Amino acid sequence: MSLFPLFLKLEGRKCLVVGAGNVAQSKIRSLLDSGANVRVIAPQANAAVEEWASAGVITWEARSFEAADLDGTVLVIAATSSSAVNGTVFREAQQRNILCNAVDDPKHCDFYYGAVVRRGQLQVAISTEGQSPALAQRIRRELEAQFGPEYAGWVEELGQIRERLFASGIDPESRRQLLHELASRDAFAERESQPREKSYGR
Fold it and tell me: Buried b vs exposed e over 83-97: b needs ≥16 C-beta within 10 Å?
């Protein structure tokens, strides 16, 4: 069965991470980057997690996981060094219809972390459905070389132009054609050779 690909809005929503080691740290960082409200449960934490907690960036409770920790949570990451604990977190989440990812344990995952290329608001995610993270990472590196940092600014410009065109009253078909032209390889090459802001739909 194929996975359903989506990009999830987590800003301000409660997410739980069980575990606070190096693996958990990367998961916490990705949740913070998405604006999530992150709570961490773990008896001990590494230096980075302790620093985030001290700064008030996350909430860390230095104790073992309890089922009640899932109350009010929309998503949970089980990232401890114990497969038994991770399995318990997954089963408790299943009973509450909460999406769970048990790190490096595909059978105990409702979703997988993709290998992601980020260029500002442009994100390209690659998934092998947990079969070969190494392959996903290789493809990510190739895409990072293909889509350089300059794409971040271009995507932002395209978004601004799109807003102006929608407000301009231009007919939908002309608008669609223009937006596709502006997103073409030729338009990007022209932008890079002559990086000047252009105005459309005003």
Answer: eebbebbbebbeeee
Residue with structure tokens 């790190």?
Answer: 103
pTM above 0.85, yes or no: no
Neighbours of 27 (CB within 10 A): 20
122 within domain boundaries: no
Nearest 5°: the CA angle 172, 177, 179 is 90
47: amino acid identity, one letter: A
Q: Say how many domains are in the chain.
A: 2
pLDDT-derived band of residue 131, with 50, 70 and 90 as boundaries? Answer: confident
Residues above pLDDT 90, as percent of the chain: 79
Please indicate, yes or no, if residue 199 is contained in any of the structural domains.
Answer: no
Same domain, residue pair 98 and 155: no
Mean pLDDT over residues 39-44, rounded? 98
pLDDT tens figures, 97-117: 999 999 988 899 999 888 889
Domain assignment of residue 25, given as a range: 14-113
Tell me, yes or no, whether 100 and 159 share the same domain.
no
Instruction: Give 62's contacts (C-beta < 8 A, 6+ positions apart).
Output: 42, 43, 44, 45
Per DSSP, what are the bridge partners of residue 118? 123
Confidence label for 122 from pLDDT (cuts 50, 70 and 90): very high
Lookup: tokens for 182: 């502006």
Instruction: Provide CB contacts within 8 A for 26, sequence distance 6+.
Output: none
- Which domain-ending residue is among 84, 113, 142? 113
